[in-house]
């Protein structure tokens, strides 16, 4: 499957499921870093099995170095920054910072000349950002009082997410298939995430045992996400990939309406329309770019 829009929607849908499921797990007493480690372990193992069945596995030079750098930049550091910043700036503002990762990805892509977006693609990123921020602000009307140093720390979250998006494209090991990369990066991330969990709250597994259906749902969502995530990276490039955050913001609204009985103001629905417009513009830019290739 090499259609960027389909891959973006599938990956973003699965990614968006992480937030409500993670919220349920944390409310049940699961250490967030431990939850992330369980996700990486389960997704890494299942995607690894799929890679063995459906991908060739030639020797790949630098595979584990690539996986280690990717997991630290994209998983461990952003997660640690999020845990540190949220108590001081609030989850709503942290969500807005995460939603800016397509912008940092586009800037880094252009600066480093790693599949930089076209002007139309940049316009789509900007429009999608406006829509995502509108959704998040409307859903999180009250922010915690922020402290400047914690806000600056939180601002590093999209920088590392963007850097990870660009690095994975720039340093993609020759001969490595997308599923193999997804499995390896997830498995390599498990150890540092467990160390982070131990540092910020411990490794109590009992809360996990109390929510088996949530764990199963999260593992299914994460497996689907990583089966398509690296294919999207290869086909769409780092900037197009980064828009899964925009799609996830829309998914969060859908979950709230259909499963949690939430009601949203008109601004949220307007934001969804703007996100759709932004994604449409960047998809058009992708199609035009492939047509010229």
Secondary structure elements and pairings:
Elements: H1 4-27, H2 32-54, H3 63-89, H4 91-99, H5 101-112, H6 119-139, H7 148-154, H8 156-170, H9 178-200, H10 206-209, H11 212-241, H12 244-258, H13 266-292
Structural commentary:
The protein has 13 helices and no strands. The protein is mainly α. The chain has one domain (4-292). The two termini are 19 Å apart.
Low-confidence stretches: none
SSE order, as H and E?
HHHHHHHHHHHHH
Assign the structural class, choosing from mainly alpha, mainly beta, alpha/beta, alpha+beta, or little secondary structure.
mainly alpha
**Coarse shape:** globular
Q: Quick recap of the structure?
A:
Helices cover 81% and strands 0% of the residues.
Features:
single chain; 293 residues; mainly alpha; 81% helix; 0% strand; globular
């Amino acid at each position: 499957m090499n259609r960027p829009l389909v891959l973006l929607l599938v990956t973003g849908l699965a990614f968006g499921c992480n937030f409500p499921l993670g919220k349920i797990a944390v409310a049940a007493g699961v250490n967030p870093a431990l939850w992330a480690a369980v996700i990486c372990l389960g997704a890494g193992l299942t995607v690894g099995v799929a890679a063995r069945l459906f991908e060739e596995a030639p020797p790949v030079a630098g595979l584990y170095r690539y996986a280690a750098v990717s997991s630290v930049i994209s998983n461990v550091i952003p997660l640690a920054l999020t845990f540190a910043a949220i108590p001081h700036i609030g989850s709503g503002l942290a969500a807005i910072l995460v939603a800016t990762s397509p912008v940092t990805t586009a800037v880094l892509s252009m600066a480093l000349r790693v599949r930089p977006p076209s002007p139309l693609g940049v316009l789509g990123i900007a429009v999608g950002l406006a829509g995502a921020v509108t959704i998040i602000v409307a859903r999180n009307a009250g922010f915690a009082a922020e402290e400047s140093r914690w806000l600056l720390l939180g601002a590093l979250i999209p920088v590392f997410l963007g850097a990870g998006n660009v690095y994975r494209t720039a340093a993609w090991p020759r001969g490595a298939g997308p599923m193999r990369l997804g499995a390896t990066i997830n498995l390599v991330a498990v150890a540092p995430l467990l160390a982070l969990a131990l540092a910020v709250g411990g490794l109590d597994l009992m809360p996990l045992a109390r929510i088996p259906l949530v764990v199963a749902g999260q593992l299914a969502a994460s497996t689907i996400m990583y089966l398509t995530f690296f294919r999207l990276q290869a086909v769409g490039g780092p900037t197009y990939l980064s828009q899964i955050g925009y799609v996830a913001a829309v998914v969060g609204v859908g979950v709230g309406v259909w499963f949690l009985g939430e009601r949203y103001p008109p601004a949220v629905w307007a934001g969804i329309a703007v996100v759709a417009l932004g994604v449409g513009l960047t998809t058009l830019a992708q199609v035009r770019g492939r047509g010229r290739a």
